[in-house]
Design brief:
single chain; 11 strands; mainly beta; seven-stranded mixed beta sheet; 120 residues
Length: 120
């Protein structure tokens, strides 16, 4: 069972920056993908950014050029650097990890979420 511990959320003014961290522990196999999702009140959870173990990344259009996802494979930790924050970035941010067994069966794990609030 993979445990994900997030940190770094908080309150920031529009135009400011925050850095989220998510450390994964308890994995027995390769964590092939780590990602950040966010969920605003009354809205579905949406992908913000993802990164594979090989370093390939993809971003939601709304955050391209402002957010950067990075990963320390040795520490099984993923980071999300958020710059030029906007009020519409306000949401609970969830860390996600995908573990792949040698049989190629995959399992998804989620963190508990961290609140990011951007004031105008």
């Amino acid at each position: 069972q993979v445990q994900l511990v997030e940190s770094g959320g908080g309150l920031v003014q529009a135009g400011g920056s925050l850095r989220l961290s998510c450390a994964a522990s308890g994995s027995r196999f390769s964590i092939t993908r780590m990602a950040w999702y966010h969920q605003a009140p009354g809205k579905p959870r949406e992908l913000v950014a993802a990164i594979t173990s090989g370093g390939s990344t993809n971003y939601a259009d709304s955050v391209k050029g402002r957010f950067t996802i990075s990963r320390d494979n040795a520490k099984n930790t993923v980071y999300l650097q958020m710059n030029s924050l906007k009020p519409e970035d306000t949401a609970v941010y969830y860390c996600h990890a995908r573990e792949r067994e040698p049989t190629l069966v995959e399992y998804d794990f989620w963190g508990q979420g961290t609140q990011v609030t951007v004031s105008s």
